User: Fold this.
Amino acid sequence: MELALAKPVKSASNWYIHLFFTLICLFMIIPFVLVIAVSLTSENSLLHDGYRFIPKELSLEAYRIVLKSPEIWLKSYGVTIAITVVGTATSLLFTTLTAYPMSRRDFRYHRPLTFYIFFTLLFNGGTIPFYILMTQYLHLKNSILALIIPLLMNPFNIIIMKSYLDKMSVEIIESAKIDGSSEFRIFYRIILPLSTPALATLSLFISFAYWNDWFNALLFIDDNKYVPLQLLLVRILSQIEFLANSPLAETASKLQFANFPTLSVRMAMALVAGGPMMVMFPFFQKYFIKGITVGSLKN
Amino acid sequence: MKKGKKAYLSSVAIMLLSMTVLAGCKSDPASETTSPKATTPTTTASTTPATPAPSTLPEVKLTFYYPSNPPGKDQALVNEEINKYVKSKINATIDLKPLSFDEYDPKMNTIMASGEAFDLAWGSKYWLLSYQPNIDKGALLELTDAMISKYAPEARKNIPDKFWPDMKATDGKVYGFPVYQIAAKTKSLVIQKQFVDKYKLDVNSIKTYKDIEPFLKTIKDNEKDVIPFGMAQNSWGLYTDPNLVAADGLAVAYKKDDKTYTSITKIQQLQNKKDFFTTMHNWSKAGYINEDAPLLKNIVDLKKKGKVAVSLEFTTKPGGEVDEMVNNGGNAVVYVPISDSYFTGVASAMQVISKTSKNPERALMFINLLNTDKVLYNLISNGMEGKHYTKKDDKYIEPIKDSGYAPNVDWVFGNQFNAYLKGAQTPDVWAKTIQLNESAMVPVSYGFDVNRDSIKSEVANVTAVDNEFQVALETGAVDPADQLQKYIDKLKAAGQDKIDAETTKQWQAFLKAKGL
Assistant:
């Protein structure tokens, strides 16, 4: 095995493969580099020279504006990180706890239950009943829970998890039972460790959903205390758009923003908002790949 | 097997339990109740302030939603200050709820559809929280004449009577209170001052678009890398005809001296514009117009470089030159009007009261204050003196940079003519705006809109044809010699004649109803 892996591939095709992946990498990295470059360029230079990889006039003005009131940003970062961490962990647990019985053929109601979940994937009540439920029955307005609970159980994720668990062999569970294991012990000690690849994938999905969510915040959060990062960005962007293009904008306020670097601010914001996820992803990826390897060795 | 079921059940139980616990965390807002009607003030409507002594009114809390730029961290502080002031006036506190422009419509629609209680909101006729659709949904409270004369008489007095019909919904009732501001539109050329001075252009000699041609030639010949006339997809429409009443946005056009107000069809108008299209094409060929005009999305992007000598402005509000300067790379400009001033309505910005409001009378009193009280208006627009702005003299203020309160949406809050002046605004800017409003021509066709139900598909087809030809012709990119006829033929094929017939029919019915 080891020898076979180590055996060098023909050098010519090796070159092609390298070239191919180098190109793909470049296609992904170049736009990103441009975003960084633009965010560091002065607005004046952007207007006259266009986008350039090497800024003609360096300027940190965009970052100064974006990070103008750091306490607001820190608060929003805090909210987003909190809902992502708490939400992902809780959601993962709930998703698995729901999917597991659905996958157990020996559970009598596994079919109706699957249908019940599947049905919500096809039909939902719509925004207004959802809003009424959240505000008038659950009273979750202006609560951080309003940002966590709606995303807790995604039927799509549950079905992914179920189809993964479907492949678990019944024999493992039976042998564990013979050894005197309780259902909970089977779940935590056998099923969960065996599902790491699925859990890794789902946690990636879920954490992105939490990180990017702004619509729930728009609906339920009036208090600035709980405004997540993405909603803050939506607000700042709409302000920029407004001041740049609206004939309704006040003369005086336009004057105040006369030299407002709209183009570079957008790029700076993209970096501020997406940055942490991009930095975190490689660390996360380590477990992700490990998870897949564990999974592939299962049988 | 039994055990599997049990495990599942217990996990469901955990889920449900946690949900209920979470739900229980919030107190029940329904417990706060007020009975507004019982203690309605008995003051009769009069010319003297109708606001009764605050002590006779029970204290109420109002919520006010409005679109705004993010105001900053001092929002709560300013809100508190406002409450102190409003409490002394009408014994009410206001919960200010600014929402950004993107958030405003989705959130307000949800709130209104769910029947959640709130008192006041900002609305407009064609933009955010649009007027008629929300009236149709039954979300807004009717403001009767009796209510207005009782609770908001001073604010009503600020608005000229001839403008008031603009507030009427299709059922003839009024559901909002306008924020009085610029209500007229004039088409103007925007010319960079440096070139006017340099080439001694007599701006008074310019009456129509054609008169600018020699100047464009001078610029072309003498100024390298300056665009003589800048146009983009959002800035065409230079054509004006002094004999025609046809402001942009009006459904019909008619001859100014025509006492029968016969509507002129779109195809006739296009044929009349042939000379204009030819001129544009010649200008384009001569290099007076930027070549990318039909492709360029936004003219501001081009003007910001400061390299556009002449461009077009549709509104021309007094003091707008300062605004224009910002968009022109900091170069001073002059406005040269090339059309009449048309009244465009007062309903473009207003405050509405929700049907779910528990205290509509007090909400209306608050609207009255917003539109008449200088202290309140400037507090809500500019924040607190010394903290968010400094006073230069009794008229001018200077905002403090990064001060923590700067919503920059004065036109949302109330009658702008109460505002302190800022920056380069001239002292007479409000007087001039009022003067322009009152002198603006109110076309007979004002308030007329075509009911498109029977011609929906034709309108869609015509729009597609318009998209194909309009911008190209208006910016002179194509030769009208053959393209204009092609455009007209395609319009006819798309059903323009049917639209014209329907428009004429409805227009005549409208005139008849008006007794003309």
